[in-house]
Amino acid sequence: MKDVGWDDLHVFFHVAEAGGLSGAARALGLSAPTVGRRMLALEQQTGQALFERAQTGYSLTPAGQALLKKVRAMQAAARPVQDFLSAQRDRPIIRLSAGTATAMFLADKFGALSRSGDNFRLNFVTSEAVLDIAHREIDLGIRNRPAEGGNLASRKLGVLRFAPYRSWSVPRPELLDWVAMDPVYARHPAARWLHDQDLPIAVRANSVATVHALINAGAGIGVMPCMIADCDPALSRAGPIIDDLTEEQHLVMHDDDRHLPHIRCLIDRIVAVYDDNADLLAGARPLRG
To answer: DSSP letters of 53-93?
Structure first.
């Protein structure tokens, strides 16, 4: 006997419960002839007569009654899975895009962005590239400029400042050269700034996270956003804030989606996180330097 599919058993259940093809067809959104053909096919697969057919309807044979009992047990066992999947469908995913440093900052504030009982889930999309919100490649994006054209809207979040940092434990910091992003991957002005200066570069990396790790390891001095480096007890400022790199961050969104309740909820929470940490973002909380 070939394996019997759950779909056919589901149809069988409705025919058994309705006592005929018409009632089952209405419940399933199928035609009565289609339901009838599937029950014939199910009987052929099982090798047993499941129904006694009459003008008054379908009644179950002993084999049909035994199968119905098992199908009901299967349905009861499957209910928690169905409820789980239904709940997941009812909780939309919000895709939030940000560069590496900003994504690290927001991940650290996850408890303020996502709460028990929320009707949405978060998907952090970490990328230095500008993703397409207008065509819904993502839902929300944090950028260093407001929305430009298209069916987009934006909201100013706050001022972000950058400074040079080194490992505080380096015994001779005056001997350190610099850690820089590889120019091929240096999309952000802070990543490109170092290459425009007449400074010795000791080592390069292709990601912000690796630059951070190299600075921590004592490989050199690097430019970092204050919101990340000033929270790292392993780092010390190696100079003043670089005013030329000061920028404003903006939350960009699709204009048609920004009033959706779950999107609006997350927007308000992101704005609150930026308001609560304005001094950290602006470089006013140095641990040492």
So the answer is: EETTEEEE-HHHHHHHHHHHHHHHHHHHHHHHHHHHHTSPE
pLDDT reading at 1 higher than 50: no
How many Å apart are CA 140 and CA 123, to the nearest integer?
A: 10
Identity of the residue numbered 264: R
Domains of the chain from N-terminus onward: 6-89 (1.10.10.10), 93-155+249-269 (3.40.190.10), 162-245 (3.40.190.10)
Look at residue 186 in the predicted model and tell me its pLDDT.
Answer: 87
- Give the pLDDT score at 195: 92
Task: Give the span between the Cα atoms of 23 and 14, in whole angstroms.
Answer: 8
93-98 β-sheet, strand order? 121-126, 93-98, 140-143, 247-254, 152-160
Residue with token string 């990396």? 205
Query: Is 114 in contact with 122 (CB distance < 8 Å)?
Result: yes
What's the rounded Cα separation, in Å, for the pair 96 and 251? Answer: 10
Beta-bridge partner residues of 93 = 121
